Structures are given as C-alpha cells and as structure tokens.
Amino acid sequence: GAVVSQHPSWVICKSGTSVKIECRSLDFQAxxxxxYRQFPKxxxxxxxxxxxxxxxxxxxxxxxxxxxxxxxxxxLSTLTxxxxxxxxxxxxxxxxxxTGTAKNIQYFGAGxxxxxx
Amino acid sequence: RKEVEQDxxxxxxPEGATVxxxxxxxxxASQSFFWYRQxxxxxxxxxxxxxxxxxxxxRFTAQLNRASQYISLLIRDSKLSDSATYLCVVKNAGxxxxxxxxxxxxxxxxx
Lengths: 117, 111
Known about the structure:
The structure holds 2 protein chains of 2 kinds. By secondary structure, chain A is mainly β.
C-alpha cells in the first residue's frame, strides 16, 4: 500500500518553543493531507485539511495561528505547533489521500508523540 | 450525541473465540464506512471497508445496516495478534473526504 512518512516520531520540548512535524507521501502524490490529534483513550480528532498550494481548512475550535500548516508540494505537508504548552501534549497523526482514487482511502503516518514540559 | 459511537471495551476473549463489535453513527447521510485497527501508540491502519451487501476478508466480516445506522465487525478464530483497538470510521456526504472516528473498541485475545 501507499506509504506516508511522518517525522519526528517523538519530541519533547520546553513550554513556549515551536515544534515542526513533517508528513511525506513517499510513493504517491497527495493533493490533500489531513492532520489529526489524539489524546489518550480518545478518538482521532481532525484538526485541519491541508491542500497543496492553498491555505489549510481548520476544524472548529482549532487555532490556525497556533497550528501552522504548510503544504508546499504534492508530497509534503508540515504542521508547526507554535509556542507549545503542556496542554498541547498529544499524539499528532497525518494522513494522505491517494489522488485520483475513488476508494477514499487515507493512509496514515506513524504519528508524532509530542510532550511539552 | 457523538457522531460515531462504539463500546470502548475491553473485550477479553480466549484465543480461537469469535467476537463481534458494533458501531452506530448519527448522520444518515454518511457515505462510506471503514474499520481501522490501531495498535498501542501506533497509527491507525485500514482493516477493511464496509459495503452495504456485507463483505468478508478472511476471518473478518463487516456488515452495514443503513436503516439502523450501525456497522458491525465479526472476527472469527481470534488470534493473539488480533489484540488491538478497532476503530469504526465514517465518511460523511460532502467534500473534503473527512473521516470521523469512533473512540475505538479494545480487544484483548488471551491464551
């Protein structure tokens, strides 16, 4: 199946710093990528939809100035958590939809576990 | 009411048992349905899509009841390696291909 690479897999940072997470589609082009967040024992919650070459679409309640998304190419989207605080500690997962498929299948990255001290 | 609801479990079953999970969804306009599997601290992985006619993939059978708005997953002859959290996922009508995830049902298969 399609491969989505997410980096880093784990990051620990001090409160107030910014953290950038990368999501790459390795063997296909993805015009649309999605960013999710998952707190312990909770479901994945969609944060934003990232569209190549245009602004991301954020879900209600997600601060676009805090979670900066850039999708500059068909294979790379980045999520930057700016001025991270302990409450931002979570599991962040990206996914990419294979362009041109009617199956609506999304492939997920391995996730990034963010711990803000 | 949550868009997608699942019994969180855990379901503890002996190896070889048959186990069934149910999931209900609130949006009658939902279009596509999936079961994903998520291992601890890992990303979700697609297990199977769910079709109106029901579908089977080896030991796994998925069924959809649109009238009652519920989806089921049946696992036969459980293996230790089936231990994971099973996520019910729904795609609603409209653009964007946004997926809505249930909180998942945890399965523990024991010797």
